[in-house]
Amino acid sequence: MTPMDWSVGRYEHTAAQLLPAARAVVERAAPSAGQRVVDVGCGTGNAALLAAARGAHVTGVDPAPRLLEVARQRAAAQALDATFALGEAAALPLPDDAADVMLSVFGVIFADAPSDAAAEMARVTAADGRIVLSAWIPEGAISEAARAAQTAVREALGAPAGPPPFAWHDHAALAGLFEPHGRQIDVQEHRLAFTATSPAEFLDRESDNHPLAIAGRAVLEPTGRGDALRDRMLSIYAAANEDADGFRVTSRYIVATAQRQPR
């Protein structure tokens, strides 16, 4: 499988929409001044910079070189103590016990091998540290539209349907990943609203910016299937619209904490 190139498009646009979720994750993790924080799948640095602003020593890890450079520039502009390294969740470029707090805001959920990613996060996190991650609950308009796009791309490629994605949102599934590493799971639910002036404006904005949308368009447009997918996604967003004068859909997500229980 060819790895997804998250450097394409303008992930900065997506990151701006996800900033409230980054705040929720960092608030839950509550890193304090002087603590060592690692942000897995840091993207443009949302959570990393929020943690650094609390006085933590932060390392952001991401597989997209362009996004790492954006994060470095943001950190420098704010004079924050944050460094950034190329890597991925299943192979973190860090030694054992290098983090007091491990974060991942919709990052580790894209790992090809969830068990390997969980093992790496546990390895790098100190025994008394905590791992805090966010994951989408697979329901609602955004999730439905994403599944429609994935199906369209798969059919255009003539690829078979793969196994269902790992249930990062599910308490039992997360327990199965982290309890073998001595970590107990706590899950809290949150909501995030996506807004625009209209369903069409939202869809076009995402299509022009989101790396997954741009990668999908490169597959669909040569086959002439792009317009059909746009119509399908637009109908999904229109049916779910919560704002008669514009556009708003709300997605549910979880913030999960994995840490050792106090003795």
Give a topology summary.
Blueprint: H1 11-29, E1 36-40, H2 46-53, E2 57-62, H3 65-77, E3 82-86, E4 99-105, H4 114-124, E5 125-136, H5 140-157, H6 171-178, E6 184-196, H7 199-209, H8 211-220, H9 226-240, E7 247-259
Parallel strand pairs: 1-2, 1-4, 2-3, 4-5
Antiparallel strand pairs: 5-7, 6-7
Structure description:
The protein is of the alpha/beta class. The protein has a single domain (11-259), classed as Rossmann fold (3-Layer(aba) Sandwich), CATH 3.40.50. The chain has 9 helices and 7 strands, in the order αβαβαββαβααβαααβ. The protein has helices spanning 11-29, 46-53, 65-77, 114-124, 140-157, 171-178, 199-209, 211-220, 226-240, and strands at residues 36-40, 57-62, 82-86, 99-105, 125-136, 184-196, 247-259. It has a 7-stranded mixed beta sheet with strand order 3-2-1-4-5-7-6, sandwiched between helices. Helix 1 (11-29) crosses helix 2 (46-53). The longest helix has 19 residues, at 11-29. It is globular. The chain starts with 10 loop residues before the first helix and ends with a strand. The relative contact order is 0.16. The model has no long low-confidence stretch (mean pLDDT 95).
